[in-house]
Amino acid sequence: MSVQTNTAKDQITKPLGVPMMGNEAFARGAWEAGIKVASAYPGTPSTEILESLASYPPEDLHAQWSTNEKVALDVAIGGSFAGVRSLVAMKHVGLNVALDALMSQTYVGVHAGLVLVVCDDPGMHSSQNEQDTRLVGRLAMVPVLEPSDVQEALDYTRWAFDLSEQFDTPVIVRSTTRLSHARSLVHTGKRREPEKKSFVKNPSKNVMIPSYARLRHPLLIERESNLIEYFESDAFTRWEKQGTNIGIITSGPAYTYVKEVLPETTVLKLSASYPLAKERMLEFCKSVSRVFVVEELEPVIERELETLGIHVEGKKYFPRVGEFSPEILREGFSNAGVLDDSPPGIDLDLTPLTRPPALCAGCPHMSSYMALRGLNARVAGDIGCYTLAAVEPLNAIDTTISMGSSIGNAIGMAKASNEPSPIVATIGDSTFLHSGIPPLIDAVYNQANITVILLDNQTTAMTGGQDHPGTGRTLTGEETHRVDFEELIRSLGVKWVKKVDSYDMGAMYQTFREATEYKGVAVVISDRPCVLDPVKIKGPPLTVISQDCTACQLCMNLGCPSISWSDEWYDGHHKVKIDEASCMGCALCPQVCPANCIVPVTP
Amino acid sequence: MNLSDLSTKKTRNILIVGVGGQGVITVSKVLASLCHMHGFQVKQSEVHGMAKRGGVVYSHVRFGEQVWSPTIPKGEADILVALEWAEGLRWLEFLRPDTGIFIADTQQIVPPFSCRNRQTGAESTYTREMPTDIIGLITNGFALDATVMAEKLGNAKAANTILLGTLSAVLDFPVEDWQSILKKLVPPKTVKVNHKAFLEGRNWIEHSQSDQTASPVNGSLPRPTEPTELESSFQFEITEAWCKSCDICVKMCPERCLRLNKAMIVEMIDLQACTGCRICEWLCPDFAIAIKKTPQSVENA
């Protein structure tokens, strides 16, 4: 391929904008809207929103990590009460944690604009489910805006704050992984200076006791119809008229795929998927002979149209599960007879290599799960990097539900008293602070016979190494009080607490054995920092004395990505080798090697 | 090579793939900045989260006057750059079948997951297709051992810059623009080696294109070695009277196929999983375990 670059250069007539990631654009939109308070708990794909906000001048806004999404939302609600525009960001499942607050806050409304940026994960790139936040918006009667690209991420977030104040409502801006983690050029604007407002005492609006809440509920219904009327003619919804044969109703990132496969078709691109502009949709449906609804995940728009008695085609052709792509839309439209089949691509009949994510070389979690396998324990897992120990070779986690579930699940399993194996819950430091403390109190209170392994790697590792109250640093890098886990756990009434070095395999086995033999709640703190965050830790690498290796491959049970098969054989099995470049020198593998053939590299 | 004109309104699609830590994102950042510089709208899409954990990493870069979908439709990638061999094969179906250009590093990063089969004589499940098998089947295919080339320049981590150099040779933005952006994006200490690596890659492709006799494949993967001697059957024997329940064999069994039964005597619970590695036999302080192997001649070895 060759380019005529002089021609390309001639095309520059105006600046195209600044390159920005979707999440940076959400942050920029909020900054331009004049926010003063922002909070979040990290969660892929939403994490970078707060990280980006933390890079704006501290005199403009306060940005913080909260211990969980409910606290984060409560903090933002507090900001709104106090009269400053506030933002909270979270992943879709984070909204479940925050939902209790949202369901009452929606009755209260806002004093200053309150916006929730919620990032869905269709296709579950990094999540435990693929719930559709648009349905939660409907449940809470909170408008849901759906930007489709990075520019709209900025524009819609700015707009959401105006809408929030105009209609006295919190507003959800819904993203997806594909939007949050896309980069493109964006036109930015100036920051709107925040209004000078402060708290206004108004108990019948701000205090949700039954007598006041009863007065608020009818206002919510009224707000919904006002919003519907607004969205009948809002400036962000676009009706792109190109012919009357078929028309497509769509919203959010799905719009970009529609334009990719059918660039010259009539489209109604909705700016909001709750509440839906009924008259506008009806008018659109009447104007074309065949209507398709293209929406990722749940049939929210399609069902609404069905209840209005309009026949549309949607989930019949476009799947309700997984992430959309141009190919999936092309296939759907081809099955519907709108497009020709896509031309065949290269097909060499290759089986793609399975390359699942694995724990890092030197990960301190490896020894915990190796030791648990040795105890033949029933293990309730939790959410974090360590969930990767659920698959081969560690294969040491039996259940995983949601943030903080492990301890509660373990209590139930222990109370079922039908298991000879010890019952163990494993939970990371950040997850423990997020939602592990109430269930641990529950375990002590109900005298459950369980062992809790607190995997303290001193960071929020899975999302890329964010600080939390156990690290002693805030989002903006300030030093603050550092939670002492041992002290905290003892104060909850746990009598048996021991800290053990995660890189001492023998101590791990022995301590776990003692803990599981203890009758009552025992807590073991597995203590080593993450090898990657906040700084990469690297000791002298290890190597295998190949002539001594008996190819038992016991070291490979650690699941360390630096250990793989060498080309040499022993007794019909591959000997092992260690990749010196990636080895962190944690020295767990020599501790499990029966042949004593793993040694530090001698310079 | 098929030459086309970028000044048309068509969207151009470059797919860059590899494994976490290889520098896929750096390559795509250089390319995206270059496209911005030349006045194109650019969309770049990648999935974060698992990248640090040795998982698959890919970056879709699309540029043109107007770009819609953030991802490249299957079969429409104009260029596929793979920083790892098996990853290149994974994404081949995204390449334009007739005109697409495939550039791959022959480096193999074998995941531990491929080395799971513990049966006697088992081979890794890493892809069997070699560059010499594949490159000939693609209209514009190139495979080079960029990692070894970078090692020779003094920094194996510059392999991604060698690949960037090869990309620069088939995507004809001015060479000085590539280099000025590269200089800005790499750590200051590595500017020199990256500059050399860039030119090395660029020259390799240019040479391979201009010289009809030059091979589009440089370096090849080692064919897997074969085991010299296989033992395909064995017996597992326990002398129960000698077992004193010390649990050493249970803890050390790589396949976790032993346990202590109710009488606290070791027993085999999963003979299928046992590979006959003899660890339990060697480690038993009481000589209570014996693995008896019957050597057999190997067919099809």
What does this structure look like?
The complex is a heterodimer of chains A (603) and B (301). In chain A, 34% of the residues lie in helices and 18% in strands. Chain A is α/β, with parallel strands linked by helices and 603 residues long. Chain A has 4 domains: 18-231, Rossmann fold (3-Layer(aba) Sandwich), CATH 3.40.50; 238-335, Rossmann fold, CATH 3.40.50.920; 365-527, Rossmann fold (3-Layer(aba) Sandwich); 542-600, 2-Layer Sandwich (Alpha-Beta Plaits), CATH 3.30.70. Chain A has a 7-stranded mixed beta sheet with strand order 3-2-4-5-7-6-12, with helices on both faces. A 5-stranded parallel beta sheet of chain A has the order 14-15-16-18-17, with helices on both faces. In chain A, a hairpin with a 2-residue loop joins strand 20 (563-570) and strand 21. Chain A is globular, with a radius of gyration of 27 Å. Chain B has 301 residues and is α/β, with parallel strands linked by helices. Chain B folds into 2 domains: 12-218, Pyruvate-ferredoxin Oxidoreductase, domain 3; 233-294, Alpha-Beta Plaits (2-Layer Sandwich). Chain B has helices spanning 24-37, 85-91, 131-134, 146-153, 159-170, 175-185, 191-210, 248-252, 279-283; strands at residues 12-19, 41-46, 56-64, 79-82, 101-105, 140-144, 217-218, 233-238, 258-260, 266-268, 289-294. The relative contact order of chain B is 0.12. At the A-B interface, helix 1, helix 8, strand 8, helix 11 and helix 14 of A face helix 1, strand 2, helix 2, helix 8 and helix 9 of B.
